[in-house]
Amino acid sequence: MKKFLDGTGLEYEEREVIKHKKWFDEMLEKTGQECAPCVEIGGHMLADTDAAAVEKYMRGKGLLK
Asked: Of 9, 26, 44, 54, whose CB has the highest number of CB atoms within 10 Å?
């Protein structure tokens, strides 16, 4: 996921939810699950996702060329 996001040239915040209970709890609250990675884009959460799904979503929203 990180490699894909780095390749987009877009700014993002990486959160290690396993190492930070606050971030893990936030992910759990937003997604209702304990699986990662999760990617939030413009308030839309893609839970337990992969790079292909994130790319498809971003292209569909016109965020990638």
From this structure: 54
